[in-house]
Design a protein that fits this description.
Layout lengths: L8 H10 L1 E2 L2 E2 L2 H12 L4 E5 L13 E4 L4 H12 L13 E5 L4 E5 L6 H22 L1
Helix pairs in contact: 1-2, 2-4
Length: 137
C-alpha cells in the first residue's frame, strides 16, 4: 500500500474546523497535524495541543486514531522519524504510537521538553506530511 493522500490539505483542514468536542473546537496547536493525518485517510477522534502543568488536561500534544489504521499510522510516523528529512524545522522530532485496547495514541517521544517545543514538533510533523502529500500527487 502506497502512502497517498485521499484529499488535499485545505479540504482536510476545513473538515477539522467543523469538528467539536462538546462546544469546543480542535485545539489550535494540533489542528494542522489532525488535518494532515486525515488528509492521508487516518480517522482521528480525539486530540489535544497540550496544556501547562497547572491546567487540567494533557501536558503533551497527542492525536488518537482508530486501531484499524495502525499500518498507515505506523508508516506516517516512520516517515516523520527519519533522521535525514531535508528541511525539517526541528532536530530529532521523534513521535511514537501507543496502542491500547480502544485506540492508537500518537505523541512526541521526548516528553521532557517544554510544551512549546512539543507543540512546534506537532507543527513540524504536519508540515512533513503536507510535503509528503505534494510528492505523491
Amino acid at each position: 500500500m502506497k502512502l497517498r493522500p485521499i484529499c488535499d490539505f485545505a479540504q482536510a483542514r476545513r473538515e477539522v474546523e467543523s469538528l467539536r468536542d462538546g462546544d469546543l473546537p480542535v485545539d489550535e496547536r494540533i489542528k494542522n497535524l489532525v488535518a494532515a493525518l486525515r488528509m492521508f485517510g487516518v480517522q482521528t477522534f480525539q486530540s489535544c495541543e497540550g496544556h501547562p502543568p497547572r491546567k487540567r488536561g494533557s501536558r503533551r500534544p497527542f492525536v488518537q486514531t482508530e486501531l484499524a489504521g495502525l499500518d498507515l499510522v505506523a508508516r506516517l510516523v516512520t516517515h516523520q522519524n527519519r533522521l535525514d528529512r531535508p528541511g525539517s524545522i526541528l532536530h530529532n522530532n521523534q513521535w511514537v504510537i501507543h496502542p491500547t485496547v480502544h485506540c492508537l495514541t500518537i505523541e512526541p517521544r521526548e516528553l521532557g521538553r517544554p510544551l512549546k517545543v512539543l507543540q512546534d514538533g506537532a507543527e513540524d510533523f504536519a508540515l512533513t506530511l503536507r510535503k509528503l502529500a505534494k510528492e505523491k500527487l
